[in-house]
Amino acid sequence: MDLERTTGLGTALYAGALGLIYVVLGLAEMASGFELVEITYIPADIFGGIMCILIGIVFLRGLEPLSSGRASGLSFLIVGVMVTAIYSGLYLAIMGSHGLGLLIGREDFGGWLAIDDLRPEIWLPLLALPAVAMLRSKLKRKPPNSSFK
Amino acid sequence: MSSKIPKEDLEVLLADRRYESIGTIIQSTVLKGERGWTLTDVLDRAFLDRYLGIPLFLTLLWAMFQFTYEVSAPFMELIDMFFGWLGKLAALIPNEYVASFIGNGLIGGIGFIMVFIVPIAFLFLWISVLEDSGYLARAAFVMDRLMSSLGLHGRSFMPMLLGFGCNIPAVMATRSIEGEKDRLITILVNPFMSCGARLPVYILFAGALFGVYAGSVVWSLYVLGVVVAVLSALLFRKTIAKGEPSPFLLELPIFRRPKVGTSLRTTWERTSIWVKKVFTILLAGAIVLWILASFPWGAELEASYAGMIGHAIQPILAPLGFDWRAAVGLLFGFMAKEIVVETFSILYAVESEAGLMTIIGQSMTPLVAYAFMTFTLLYMPCLALFGTIKRETGSWKWTVFITIYGIVVAYLVAAIIIGTGTLLGFG
Q1: Is residue B13 part of a domain?
Q2: Do A143 and B36 touch (CB under 8 A)?
Q3: Which residue range(s) make up the domain with A115?
Q4: Measured between CB atoms, which of B35, B62, B70 is closest to A97?
Q5: Residues of A with CB below 8 A from B215's CB?
Q6: Total count of domains within chain A
Q7: pLDDT, tens digit (0-9, with 9 covering 90-100), for A17-74
């Protein structure tokens, strides 16, 4: 075992919570995309929803190794965080491009407001900041044994 | 060692022994301290995961195409506005032949295609970042699992991934594949990998008919290209190139933060090759198309030479819902896939991307547009790729074979899309 039991369980709970949030968000985006529901600030985006669910699954995949104290579970947490950051950057860039569209007078962006594009994927990675801090210290510190299992 | 050991097993055996020897030497000469986890150790656990490796790859690809499509839109609009302004200037030229040639031929053709420099550059930028970070080698590794289970060669996927940029260097990259049959299969399926030249077609049609899902439609076409390539490789393995794939040994590079300068330089190199193509092949294509669409001078477009050619081919494509303009586009798309887009702009005589999108949105259903994009993706290699396949295989037989095979596959897949879509009520 690479992690202390309590640390492992705590990290597992944290990864599980992040995973669930993304899966639920993905399902909500898909449901909105199929016009089953309409939720404020949740975009109607079927494919975006699928990607959200996949990100959630990456977090959830780390649950089992983390809860049994294996450090390999941290891999899924860190890759999950990385992908959420990529998606946050992506949606921010799209928001910026829509803003530019408004500036140059593109037809579709007449009444565009930045808040229209403020998808949860943009700010959700903030929830992963504690994971980033923890993982940074883990990567710097020597592990209890030399192999990464 | 017994002489009965197959060459492929021998290679694996040699590699094993080589690493064993390296391990023994290191063990006896190097005193190792306790090693901290490296970023590569940590990331590989997830990126190479048996179950998540491929979904993660698809997730990153989707982000790539969303970015390419969405973020490039306002920049495309700016370039479009510039060429629209040039078009208005051209209309002031008193000589009607010259005005038409410059306005409809050059600006309508070349200017129109230059709009797509932005998404193409963005696509190249993403590919270069994925390459520089060390991820692309991982993508080949995770795909190897899938491909090996289908009896294919894992190393084939690296040249196939390179095909996302351009199929020509990708076909040339197959030289690194040792097995003759493995290399032949990789060359033959490479034209199905969607290159940057097809991107303008997707952006135009997806943007015109699929609204907020345009980026996802573009992504789906790239995935479809991979699926058709893998299935075709499987078919070739079982028929024309029977045998076991040779073993795949890939040393994964460490993960590293991509350098901005390197990525930008690679992007510029690849984009500048595309710009050269615009001012050579695509310029020639625009001139030929303008002549065909403008003569006999004064005739209606449908009575022009382009119209005659289009009407002659159109009955073959009619079951797919393609009109004569689409037929002309596909015919000339053999020179270069971007000419498909150029054709539409010249035949509809519009000088702006927005104007053409509106016309296409009114003249095609989303189902026909999707079938048309699929046909463009699969139907045949461009002229330059045709030459490269001939050179790399050294055979007219295989070059002609893959051209005909591509047309048949494109027709069948487009027909399946139209048939299924109509049955589901999307017609």
Answers
A1: no
A2: yes
A3: 5-140
A4: B70
A5: 47
A6: 1
A7: 999 999 999 999 999 998 898 888 899 999 999 999 999 999 999 999 988 888 788 8
